[in-house]
Amino acid sequence: MPSVIQVITEGLEYVNDIDQYIKEEGMSDIGTAYKNIAIIGCQSSGKSTLLNVLFDTNFEQLDQNSRGMAQTTKGVWAARNSEKNILIFDIEGTDSRERGDDRMTFEQTTSLFALALADVLMINLWTTDVGRYAASNYGLLKVIFEVNLKLFAQNQNQKKLLFVLRDFNEYEHNREKMIELLEGNVRKIWGEIYKTEEFKDSSPHDFFDFEFHMMPHKIYQKKEFEEAGLQLKEKFNVNNPDTIFPKTESLNVPIDGLPLYIDNCWTCIREQKELNLPGERQMVATYRCGEIKQEAIDKVQDRLDSLQQRSYEGIIDDYKDQCGNILDESISHYDDSAKQYYKETYEGVRLELTNHLIEILYKSFVSQLKNLTLQGDKKFAKAMKNTFNDDTVTDTFADTCNGLFEDTIKQFEQKAKMLC
Fold first, then answer.
1. pLDDT by residue (tens digit) across 51-110?
2. CA 415 vs CA 296, 297, 307, 319, 363: distances in Å
3. In the chain, at which end, N or C, are there fewer CB atoms within 10 A of the end residue's CB?
4. How far is the first Cα of the chain from the last one, in angstroms, to the nearest whole number?
5. Where are the domains of the chain?
């Protein structure tokens, strides 16, 4: 069973361990082929339990017998699913008495964080709480709606909101009426939020894709709970034609840049700066492509140094092949790791890498040309000495000299062309 890792502490501090977690869990090479899921909901509403059912994770669950209705998840925790293509973020429960006066600040901060990360944002609530402002997280929904309007203006995709109604009993509750009530609440909240002129006539469905799922009581309707869990679990299969994940192109950063992206987003949210997700992704792309470029240089640095030294000392017969191998290995490493970042950034840094390598190789190329020049000088001098080995004057001296010179130049040009 995959391990779990804390991402945000209960004191709102970012824990910079997710990079190591991604490596240890074998996810380093998946690029953008992953999804993010986050869940929000009231304290002790069974969020962690639901995640464990859906994704075979090991989030800490509430033990009501030993702890009562107390807080279990503190801060933000994360885990991967068994297929290693989904990261799940378990957010501390809302409406927590342990938080006291800081509750609203924490709830809004972590909810915005979940919105910024998640392809699917799950809202877990008791069926009996539908219609109750605080218990149903309607206050947080208002914040989420307002922020997502700004994100949408930054060319963001629609967000998927999944309402999960817990302890739903078909004999007591009407599914259609519950959905109708929730949608009515959503429209009411949408009507209350501030909208710019551009979006004044918009509806929540322009920005969100809503889904609803009913979960029976885990203890008293165990069989029905398990069946409903399996149905929802199948929807989280990314290869399922009816998958819950948005069909639009993923805007996730490659997973090796995710730790930096999370850090930047969290810092922005905590400092109450306006979220600019495209800007954050661009910054991550610039930073990571620069790091990968340096990795690509380091990978061949010893061979570059060796080639430079040997080029200074003499002529290298397979100089062209060695240069080609160095360029191919370095640029291939860069391409493999950086090609999934923003195209303009990736291509720009790739050009920087290529120019840097060529600049270094040019020094050894010049050394090879100097060595070929010295070799040509020696051969020409030797040929002259062998041809004119006494002081005899000959009428063909000029023609012979020109012939030897042309042969020397021809050999030099042939060998020089073989260098590049």
1. 999 999 998 876 555 444 445 668 899 999 988 899 999 998 775 555 444 555 677 788
2. 30, 28, 18, 11, 17
3. N
4. 54
5. 4-275, 284-417
Q: How many Cβ atoms from other residues are within 10 Å of residue 255's Cβ?
A: 22
Q: Please, are residues 36 and 117 in contact by the beta-carbon 8 Å criterion?
A: yes
DSSP symbols for 197-257? GGGTT--GGGTEEEEEEEE--TTTTHHHHHHHHHHHHHHT-TTSTT-SS-SSPP-PPPGGG
Q: Which segments in the chain show pLDDT lower than 50? A: 66-70, 99-101
Q: Are 311 and 319 in contact (CB under 8 A)?
A: yes
Residues 86 and 80: beta-carbon distance below 8 Å: yes
CA distance 321 to 104: 64
Contact 7, 20 (CB under 8 A): no
HSE (CB half, 13 Å, CA atoms) of 416?
16
Contact 288, 260 (CB under 8 A): yes
Nearest to 117 by CA among 140, 94, 137, 91: 91
Paired strand residues for 208: 159
Quote the pLDDT of residue 313.
Answer: 82
Rounded Cα distance, 265 and 260, in Å: 9
One DSSP character per residue, 380-412 reads HHHHHHHH--SS---TTHHHHHHHHHHHHHHHH
Architecture of the 4-275 domain:
3-Layer(aba) Sandwich (3.40)
Instruction: Encode pLDDT of 19-36 as tens digits.
Output: 999 999 999 989 999 999
Long-range contacts of 396-405 (CB under 8 A, 24+ apart): 404/380, 405/380
Quick one: tokens of 258?
A: 């995710």
Q: Kindly report the pTM of this predicted structure.
A: 0.78
Facing residues of 88 across strands?
A: 37, 79
Q: How buried is residue 280: exposed, middle or buried, by Cβ count under 10 Å (0-12/13-18/19+)?
A: buried
DSSP bridge partners of 214: 165
Q: How many CB atoms lie within 10 A of CB 53?
A: 19
Beta strand 76-80 with 4-8 is antiparallel
